[in-house]
From TrEMBL:
Entry keywords, A to Z: Calcium, Disulfide bond, Lectin, Metal-binding
Family statement drawn from the similarity comment of this UniProt entry: Belongs to the fucolectin family.
Superkingdom: Eukaryota
InterPro entries, per database record: BG_Antigen-Binding_Lectin (IPR051941), FTP1 (IPR006585), Galactose-bd-like_sf (IPR008979)
Name of the protein in its database record: Uncharacterized protein
UniProt entry tagged with the keyword Metal-binding: yes
Source species of the chain: Paramuricea clavata
GO terms assigned for molecular function: fucose binding; metal ion binding
Entry-linked Pfam families: F5_F8_type_C_2
Stored SUPFAM superfamilies: Galactose-binding domain-like
GO BP term, example: regulation of complement activation, lectin pathway
Known role: Acts as a defensive agent. Recognizes blood group fucosylated oligosaccharides including A, B, H and Lewis B-type antigens. Does not recognize Lewis A antigen and has low affinity for monovalent haptens.
Length: 238
C-alpha cells in the first residue's frame, strides 16, 4: 500500500526515520519539502516530457498530465481520459532516474465518480519496480504517493486494474539522478549513534546508519524512540 503525503511540504519526523546520508553535520532535523527519501517535491522530472496512454477519449490527451497545470476540471483542458478497457498511462523520463515518489492530481468534476484501484510502476527494460498501489479518490486533490522502495528506471506507468477508465489531471515524478546514489559518500554509515530514550522494541538508533533505506518500520530498518518530550537522535561522525 502506498504511503500518502497530503501536502507538498511536510515535517521530516524526528521520531521515526532512516537517515540516508549526512554530509558535514552531526544531526538532521528540519522542515522540508521532501519525501522520505530526501527528494525535492518541487522538482518534477516529467514536466513537458513525452507521455502516452492506452487509448484516448473525449480528446483527453496524455500530455495534459505533464503540462504543469493542476487544474482538476476536465472542461479546462487540464485532464486526460482513456476509453473503457485495460487502461494505463506512461511517461518517458528522458534519462535514468531513481524514482522515490509520484504526485497525482485527480478530477473534481461532479459527474466523474470513477474510483480506480491503481498501480504505479517504474520501468527499466525488463526490470520493473512497483512504486505504489492503492485507490484513487477523485476529489480534485493532490496527493504524493511515496514509493515503498526506490525504483530505478526510464519510464513511469500508471495503470488501473480490471476493465475501467483512467482520467487524471496532473502527474509529477520525484527522485534523484543516477549519480545521487552512485557517487555520494555517506559519512554517517555505521558510525556510533544514540537517541534520547531506550528504543521502541528493536528499533535502535543504529538502524538509521545501517545503509538500508527501507521506510517501513516492520523491516527493522528504522529507529523509534519511546514516547516522551524533546526526543532526539544523534550520530558521531568520528
Amino acid at each position: 500500500m502506498a504511503q500518502r503525503v497530503g501536502n507538498q511540504c511536510s515535517i521530516v519526523l524526528f521520531l521515526l526515520m532512516s537517515v540516508t546520508a549526512v554530509h558535514g553535520t552531526r544531526y538532521i532535523m528540519t522542515e522540508t519539502c521532501e519525501d522520505q527519501y530526501g527528494a525535492d517535491l518541487n522538482e518534477n522530472f516529467v514536466l513537458n516530457k513525452q507521455a502516452t496512454q492506452s487509448s484516448t477519449s473525449n480528446n483527453g490527451a496524455a500530455g495534459r498530465l505533464v503540462d504543469g497545470n493542476r487544474n482538476p476540471y476536465f472542461g479546462n483542458d487540464s485532464c486526460s481520459e482513456t476509453a473503457v478497457g485495460s487502461s494505463s498511462w506512461e511517461v518517458n523520463l528522458g534519462t535514468t532516474i531513481y524514482v522515490t515518489s509520484v504526485t497525482i492530481t485527480t478530477r473534481a468534476d461532479d459527474y466523474w465518480r470513477e474510483v480506480n484501484k491503481f498501480s504505479i510502476t517504474v520501468l527499466n527494460g525488463g526490470e520493473n519496480s512497483l512504486c505504489a498501489s492503492g485507490m484513487f479518490q477523485h476529489d480534485g486533490g493532490t496527493t504524493t504517493y511515496v514509493c515503498e522502495k526506490v525504483g530505478k528506471g526510464t519510464l513511469v506507468r500508471i495503470a488501473v486494474s480490471g476493465n475501467g477508465q483512467l482520467s487524471l489531471c496532473e502527474v509529477e515524478v520525484h527522485g534523484h539522478p543516477m549519480d545521487f546514489y552512485e557517487n555520494k559518500v555517506n559519512y554517517a554509515l555505521s558510525q556510533p549513534a544514540k537517541m534520547s530514550s531506550p528504543p521502541y522494541l528493536v528499533h535502535t538508533a543504529s538502524n538509521a546508519v545501517d545503509g538500508v533505506r527501507h521506510v517501513n518500520l516492520d523491516t527493522g530498518s528504522c529507529f523509534h524512540t519511546t514516547k516522551g518530550r524533546g526526543d532526539w537522535w544523534f550520530v558521531d561522525l568520528g
